[in-house]
Design brief:
about 30% strand, Zincin-like, about 425 residues, 25 strands, eight-stranded mixed beta sheet, alpha+beta, five-stranded mixed beta sheet, 3 domains, Immunoglobulin-like
């Protein structure tokens, strides 16, 4: 190739690279859903900056509630939206009482709360007092024991942090602090969490970093003598010793879990990246099923590998909205089941229009297309086998977006940029 032709080629590649870079920056910066018309005004997304949740469990009064103080910013004039499923006793915006009724998303797929006051752009403070035991139902006021499991779920809608406290949608990352105060009992309690814990007798402060979102925190408050516990470490490939806490009612599953941890994480570190979180917390029980958190899981022993992979894809790189929740399950299923390759994005027995990106943006649960997602990733792995396949790409993708939220559009653009191929027809046919 002559020098002039080479320069022209390089210039074109630079332009294409810049174009992809701009698109990726834009796609990552904004959630894939926006404000909408409401009562002759707008319902607008907001950016939580910091949230303080003060949880009070009073055995003398037989009450449990949360006082929340949330600093948020909004970019445009309108009614701010957030979510909370528990009963609201009182809400104040800048000290003035407001109502926070539930409304439906534009297409009616889900619900959330709206502040019934048109608010100008800028920073604001929202204070909310709400009930907390409607969904936990685990506080024995007669016996003096609080077994308050703030466990989340992605199998049903609106069961991330909003099931307990005022929270924002998944695209938003913000610093959270929980303060637990237990009054009127002499029974000593313990808290298990993936946050930084400061403890005094029946009083706990848990601090979560500013990259956490509504599906990241793990909090389990329990009487101290309920669970068996074992602490260990594993050595990361980066030289860091990572602390591991395993707790369970059963010693056998603790031992089985401990014996499995090193091999699972070694595989992930070899293929993807060093362990991304400060530590690892595992609440393990016999059987299957589980739920992932950032560097933590409550899981059956059979689902242990699946949930630990999710600390990379789901709670390491996080979906920004409901339409993007398929990504982490597709990757996790594919990795868990042995990195199988598929000649087609879908099997002959399945619908060939996968529609694995079919949820409403505002919904907060995972699309249950586990095998469909696995097959789609396995198809891409075979398609790009001559370019190294999906593992090097996933390592690149994870390192670039670690502790960030991503959309389906970002995932698609990163694939196109990495493999230098237009994937719009494939995504249009099998994803959208």
């Amino acid at each position: 190739m002559r020098i002039r032709e080479l320069n022209e080629k390089l210039y074109s590649l630079l332009l294409i690279g810049s174009f992809f870079s701009l698109i990726l920056q834009s796609a990552q910066a904004d959630p894939s859903f926006h404000s909408f018309e409401h009562n002759n005004s707008k319902a607008v997304l907001v950016d939580f900056k910091e949230a303080l949740y003060e949880v009070v469990i009073d055995f003398n009064k037989k009450t449990s509630f949360v006082n929340s103080s949330i600093k948020f910013e909004q970019k445009e004039k309108g009614h701010p939206i957030f979510d909370l499923r528990n009963h609201v006793f009182e809400a104040r915006l800048e000290g003035q009482e407001v109502n926070t009724p539930e409304i439906s998303s534009p297409d009616g797929a889900t619900k959330f709360r709206i502040i019934n006051k048109v608010t100008s752009p800028g920073e604001h403070v929202l204070n909310v007092k709400n009930d907390i035991d409607e969904f936990t139902q685990r506080i024995d006021f007669s016996g003096g024991e609080a077994n308050l499991a703030m466990w989340l779920s992605d199998l049903s809608d609106r069961e991330f942090l909003e099931i307990f406290v005022p929270s924002n949608f998944e695209f938003d990352q913000y610093k959270m602090t929980f303060k637990f105060t237990i009054i009127g009992t002499n029974i000593e309690h313990e808290v298990y969490s993936n946050g930084k814990i400061t403890k005094s007798k029946n009083s706990f402060i848990i601090e979560f970093p500013d990259y956490f979102n509504s599906s990241s925190p793990y909090i389990h408050l329990t009487p101290s003598d309920i669970y068996l516990e074992e602490k260990t470490t594993f050595e990361s490939t980066c030289g860091r010793k990572v602390g591991v806490t395993i707790y369970s009612p059963t010693l056998e599953v603790i031992e089985e879990t401990k014996n499995s941890i090193q091999s699972i994480i070694s595989e992930l570190e070899e293929k993807i990246a060093p362990w991304p979180h400060e530590s690892l917390l595992i609440n393990v029980y016999e059987g299957g099923g589980g739920m992932e958190y950032a560097g933590a899981t409550e899981t059956g022993i059979e689902a242990l590998r699946h949930e630990i992979i999710h600390s990379y894809f789901a709670r390491g790189v996080m979906p920004a909205d409901g339409k993007s929740s398929w990504i982490d399950e597709a990757i996790t299923e594919w990795m868990e089941n042995g990195y199988k390759q598929f000649k087609s994005p879908c099997s002959q027995s399945a619908e060939c229009s996968l529609e694995i990106n079919s949820l409403d943006n505002f919904t907060r649960h995972t699309t249950l297309f586990y095998h469909k997602g696995e097959q789609f990733i396995g198809y891409l792995d075979l398609k790009f086998a001559d370019k190294g396949g999906m593992i090097p790409f996933l390592s690149h993708f994870f390192k670039k977006y670690k502790f960030k939220t991503v959309t389906t559009e970002v995932f698609k653009l990163e694939l196109e940029s990495y493999f230098d191929e237009d994937l719009e027809p494939i995504f249009r046919n099998y994803v959208y």
